[in-house]
């Protein structure tokens, strides 16, 4: 029937039109090459690296790779500073500064690192990323445009000797991520999010007191605190809402590798990523709303698509419309003449659409073609993850991570950290308790780098700095 054919065509265009645009945009994006006399070089960069402080080969390899890029300074912020200092001594990296953090909280550790930055550019790095020697030279190239506030780069999996199913799913996730940010950036300058694994930001943006207060105390709808998640999305939205451009550097020289969970815990990471997507995209659309005019294509292709049904539902509805198009009449809208031919083309198209973003990946790694059936199974299973992530949006911890590595019990340290990060229902009472609890513990606070925080809290100056009122409810 004609109305089924029309419904099929409209729904098919809604789902796949953006794919055609993204294929052209992603595959035609050109790298931004460094100037011969660049405004910024590695000497203008300070690296801030929040880490849990666990001694492993990834952290050691990460630190060595950062050192080969010769940034001006590196601040490592960890709740286990002595372990990290020992690693730095073993690697002959005594020039790296190690700051103690009271507990493993990435936002709090990032804020602590930002306070020490004296360079024009901050590069945030996770403790499992590995940079090539050419990385900083090419990552800084987009900053020649004074309107660019931050730069992201492409990540790929640091491939193990023997790939398993989880490695493959992680590798293809990163490839699809690269494809997506390249495409939307090339169309209208919008991206889903700056990668928290590695990104560069102008220091002047992050030194703004308004940013620090927002970053430290960000909450989602219904006052859900986001102190343990979504830090990269928060920075991305702040840049967009304040008129800064975000650039994506797709030069091979700026590509870095990273690790992902090589076990079923990868599903926990997927769940966390999907929760982050729901929270960030709804905030951008309904609270900030700047994207509608600043990034119209990104609003359609990324943000509105958050509400698309899972793949199995969407393709099932398309199949239903296509089947009934041939009931008692000849099809219209340029559809094939027979139902069998139409479904053959439809299934072939689904296979192509599901894999075309990864064709360059399979060209480089043909041995991974054996995992191709897993790709299709996971695509449909991921729909269940999306549904569950929506139903558990209020959960803001980091599934798949090691957030429980350090669990501080010292009352003074915990109060200082919590006050700086989230505020307090009764700041005056908390401040008095903190000062009383900290008596005799100044050496500990000095070692952890929080003696200054204690002084600000006891004097009340942190109220002004963080933009809090004495009777703030956080």
Short note summarizing the structure:
α1 packs across α6, α1 packs across α13 and α17 packs antiparallel against α18.
Task: Give a verbal description of the structure.
With 474 residues, the protein is α/β, with parallel strands linked by helices. Helices cover 53% and strands 10% of the residues. The chain is built from 21 helices and 12 strands. It has helices spanning 2-28, 57-68, 81-90, 106-114, 135-139, 165-188, 203-206, 209-217, 231-241, 266-288, 291-294, 296-303, 311-325, 339-355, 359-364, 372-391, 411-422, 427-437, 442-448, 451-459, 461-466; strands at residues 45-50, 73-78, 97-100, 121-125, 129-130, 148-153, 155-157, 198-202, 219-220, 224-225, 245-249, 256-258. The strands form 3 sheets. It has a 7-stranded mixed beta sheet, sandwiched between helices. It has a 3-stranded mixed beta sheet with strand order 5-12-7. The longest helix is centred in the N-terminal third of the chain and has 27 residues, at 2-28. The termini are far apart.
